[in-house]
């Protein structure tokens, strides 16, 4: 579990660094210029690699039994989770109605996985992601309390978001099958 926990710590630190240590982040950017983005991207990539390796290597230690109906709820809500995640960087007119759609999508995605995975490694990973995303929203809101809703967007942008979401849903489903997991629970 050490790799998993180490990767999660790295993920959280890399993401909240800008919010909790803005002067240190600015100093790093001043010294490295645009290369600082590459440094943070490399750290995040390393965190993802460690999380995946740690999760796959973790022993199965049951914590709770997921409800049988959970997989159906996941099937129903995973599409909106993906759509919310994409909404934050889309040109959809829906974007003006929600602050932090990407983080809300990430939270929903994590909560849905937690609903159908009751082992310790899942609880640690998905639980950490939920806590991080909610904390990140709080940190952003504290630093930038006045939200300026997105003023652009169009119906065409919303249609594009729906199509991209559908394609990603199919790809993610295929990846689950490739990993030996039936996301539809049959």
From TrEMBL:
Keywords: Membrane, Transmembrane, Transmembrane helix. It is found in: Membrane. It comes from the Bacteria. One of its GO terms (cellular component) is membrane. Residues 3-183 form the NnrU domain. Its main location: membrane. The chain crosses the membrane at residues 38-57, 69-88, 108-135, 161-179. InterPro entries: NnrU_dom (IPR009915). It is a multi-pass membrane protein. Pfam families: NnrU (PF07298). This is NnrU protein. It comes from Palleronia salina.
